[in-house]
Structure formats: structure tokens, C-alpha cells
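Pilot study result, target chain (370 residues):
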Amino acid sequence: MSIQMVDLRGQYLKIKDKIDEAIQQVLDSSAFINGQVVRDFGADLAEYLSVKHVIPCANGTDALQVAFMALGLEQGDEVIVPCFTYVATAEALALLGLKPVLVDVDPQTFLIDPAEIEKNITSKTRAIVPVHLFGQCADMDSIMSIADRYHLFVVEDAAQSIGAVYTRANGDTAYAGCIGDIGTTSFFPSKNLGCYGDGGALFTNDSSLEEKIRMICNHGQKKKYHHSLIGVNSRLDTIQAAVLQVKLKYLDQYSAARNKVADFYDKAFAGDGRFTTPKRMEKSTHVFHQYTLIMNDISRDSLRAHLLENGIPSMVYYPLPLNEQEAYKSVGNFPVTKDLCSRVLSLPMSTELTAEQLDLITETVLNFSE
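Predicted structure:
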């Protein structure tokens, strides 16, 4: 079988009967919008995450936007976000007239640097958005300490890290997205917990925020045709909820499979100075949404071409820093992000990768010569 970055078909075939049955039940019920399955999935995910409230929505970008709306942020307020991230993190802010304040990241973990957060706090700062990039949690103890000190909200972007567990300094544990005021995630098909279309959710332990979030997602109404808040139309499709309810039962199994692949890669590339393998945080488990190498004094483009010639895909997450994107150009110096954008390369990471495929991938990488 050809190697994919993420083998969604192979994953589906293993649970085909359960997925098909769940979808058929929705078709039979004809409850395509706000069906009972949406509520059931939200409750199941809340139980899995040990969080009080999960509010499903249409996609991960909506989840971020709704979070900022629920917190009452106003135009001109500043929100600190990492420069090394997908555009949605800043996009949701810009749509509301908020100002994304970009900060640099740790060169080994790719995660937002708490020291850079504190340097960029001003009188207009209202919130921090730690992005749990590539599958592990940012330094939440430090981030929450900063937030408490400066009275800031924390919105966790857990789109790539669902299932990762963070251990607090006091020994308590919490899942990614369940530590700050609000957590958000995406169920885009390639995510660790992905549906077969678009989908997203918000998490919170604050019941007053939960009520506002639900209202905002539903046109600002609690009672039908009575609109108390300015809202949006953002809901998880019932068929997608049915898919997710099935796949949630396999999430720990998927995480274990991804870690097995990452362990194989780590062992294969250990000692090869041309590559730096991903650093794993001591305080966080890793669910490896991506397995991302850093190139050391070799041509990334040449390696990608070499891989492609041998039938192996690869991806660059991300090729351009946020501050250099046309829509988000800003003044600032982000040396770590700029360097990473020129040197990172992600290899196939899938729950369905076989031993033979992993041998081919690693041997092809190791045999590369310029």
C-alpha cells in the first residue's frame, strides 16, 4: 500500500462496521441538526477529559472565535499567541477586531515560550493563547502563573493535542485544553480525533462560561427566537458526532500507536547529527499529531525530493512565520520561529503505518545524501 501522511481510509476500514452503523442510525432518525448524538458525544468527551463541560461546534476556528466572544474581549484588546502556529489562531482574533501579539517559541519543543509571553504584556493585554503544537502541552504551570499575576484569561488551542496529559507542579493531572479558562479543539479529519468533515468543540470547567458559549454557538439564544447575545451559527453536524462518538472509544489506542511510530523514528535517527528529533516535555505526555524533525546543515528541499522519488510524502508545518504572512504582517523579531520555518520537516504519522513502511521511510531518510 502507498504511504500516506495520515491513512484515513485504513483507519476507517478497521472500524467500518461500527462507523457505518452509527451513520445509518442518524439517517434513520433524520435528526441531522442538533440530534441526540451530538449531546451524547459532548457528554462522552467531557467524561473522557474529566472536564465539566464540552460544547461541540462547527470547526476549530469557530471554537477559538466563540471562546474570545464568551470572554467579552473588545476591539483593540491584545491577545498573546505564538508566532509558530497555524493561521487560525490569529485569524479568529483578527475577525473580532482583537490584536494578535506574536511571541517566539522554544527552539526544541516548538511551544510558546513563557519568558516571551511576559516580555510582551502591556496594559491592553487580556488573554494568552498557548497552542499545544504537534501533540504535547505547553508549559501550563508557567503560563497559568503569568495569567494569575497579570489577571489574564487563558484560551488553550488543543487542536493538535487531544488526549495529551499535563502534570501540574502539585501532582494533579489534566488533559490538554482543560487547564485554562477555555480549551478549544478541531475534529478536522486528519486530527488525532477526527471526523469525516468539519467539526470542533470548546471545553470549560466554568458553568457561567459554558452557558454563554452554548448561547453564542446558537445565534446568541437560550430560548428559541429570544436572542440575548450576539452569536454565530456554529454547530457540530449529527453525522459527524456519530463518527466521533465511535472514534473516541479508540483515542487511547490511536495515541499509543502514534507513540509507537514516534519511538521507532527516534531510535532510527538517534546519533545522526543531520537531524534533531522532537523533544518531549517532562510535564506532558505526547500524542504525536505530527512527528517533526529539524534539519541540521542539510537541504530540506533536497530531502523532500528524495523522499518523494521513493513514494514517501512529507510536509512542512509551517513554511512561513505568522508575522510574514501578507494578512498578518507585523513588526518584530522572531528568530526561533524564522529558523524553524526554514528547517522543520514532518514525516508520515499515522495509526496505520506498518513495520515495512516504517523501515522504508527511515531507511530512505538515512540513505539520503546531497
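One observation from the pilot: The first helix runs from residue 8 to 14. A full batch analysis is planned for the follow-on phase.
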